[in-house]
Amino acid sequence: MRASYYRGARTFQIGSAPQPVPGRGEALLRVRRAGICGTDLHIYQGHFDHRVPRGGIIGHEIFAEVVSASAGGGFNEGDRVVVEPLIFCGTCHACRMGASYLCHRLKVMGIDAPGGMQEYWAVPTARLLKVPDSLSDDHAALIEPLAIATHDVARAQVKSGDTVVVFGGGPIGCLIALVCRHRGARLKVVEVNTHRLEMLKSFGFETIGPDEDVVGVVNAWTDGEGADVSFEVSGHPNAVRLVTDVVRVWGTVSMIAVYTEPVPVHLYSVFARELTVLGSRLYTRAAWEEAIRLASTGAVDVGPLVSRRIPLEELQQGMEEVLAGGPVMKVVVDLG
Q1: Strand ranges (DSSP E) for 56-162?
Q2: Please, which of 39, 109, 266, 296 could form a disulfide with 135 given CB 3.0 to 4.6 Å?
Q3: Of 106, 79, 83, 82, nearest in space to 94 by CA
Q4: Do 181 and 173 contact (CB within 8 A), yes or no?
């Protein structure tokens, strides 16, 4: 079978590998689609070399078909599934609290363990969720990032009538905006990339561009009160400086972007307005179930996010295309 191997910064190599043999409690999957996400871009640039070994196989946004499965696992040949790519111990304090996705010994498939950029993949059946036939293959590949969004929005307790500011209009920011809109919130998305600004407008979102005064726009929009919730998804230090300044008294700030180095935060707003600041990392099983329901019923239309479908052999080119900042939202790898 074919697999794409990480060979170091900005280098993937297609090679052959023996077809995996599933063990007890596992299913053998035929991988159909794999999404390229921000974490994959970090891996590609060499930022995750402390976690991804040379020769590692990435890919954690996976849609697949069951080839075979252990008896009693609830899955049969032909089932269409997505993969919750988490390996957790089940015994640490976080796991015992019910936060297994924050396990002290957490490993993520496609980062710390082999992922789905391969034609066949053996995965524990406990990490699989079925998806209905109403969901296309391309759209099913977006369930993992949509689960990130449903988890983020649930943690921030966004409700109908809320005003929301999303910093960053990439795939996760766009999905958060879609879920917030589905919940009945009013929102604005802050973005600096001109291509993405046009894409966001095509989705029907009100945007705040690079030449606008973000705090001034939000104050005018909310009659000077500030928004109920802000999400920082951009990963840019300038957004961190502003994200606490756009919310109201007793408002909520949700930090989603990954920062590997300390950045300045305006904490006076946290003090003066008694803000709630949340971190949001991965997802619960409930977030996955909600994501599948929203996408499969059309309540959240993920289709417009898919910009391109590429073969596995073009993974490296796809990474470069996304990094170039052009008119691309989501690139999906077709392994079918």
Answers
A1: 61-69, 80-83, 86-87, 107-108, 120-124, 128-130
A2: 296
A3: 106
A4: no
Q: What is the pLDDT of residue 181?
A: 98
In a domain, 128, yes or no: yes
Question: Residue 253: enclosing H or E segment and its boundaries?
Answer: strand 247-255
Chain segment 287-324, per-residue pLDDT in tens: 999 999 999 999 999 999 999 999 999 999 999 999 99
Active site residues: 39, 42
pLDDT digits (tens, 9 = 90+) for 228-256: 999 999 999 999 999 999 999 999 999 99
CA distances (Å), 145 to each of 156, 264, 307, in order?
17, 27, 15
The range of the structural domain enclosing residue 176 comes to 149-279
Backbone angles phi, psi at 65, to 5 degrees: -120, 135
154 and 260 assigned to the same domain: yes
User: In the structure encoding, which two tokens stand for residue 84, read together?
Assistant: 């919750």
CATH number of the domain within which 160 lies: 3.40.50.720
135 domain-assigned: yes
Domain match, 66 and 96 both: yes
83 and 180 in a common domain: no
pLDDT in tens, 164-216: 999 999 999 999 999 999 999 999 999 999 999 999 999 999 999 999 999 99
Residues 6+ apart with CB under 8 A from 243: 167, 230, 232, 253, 255
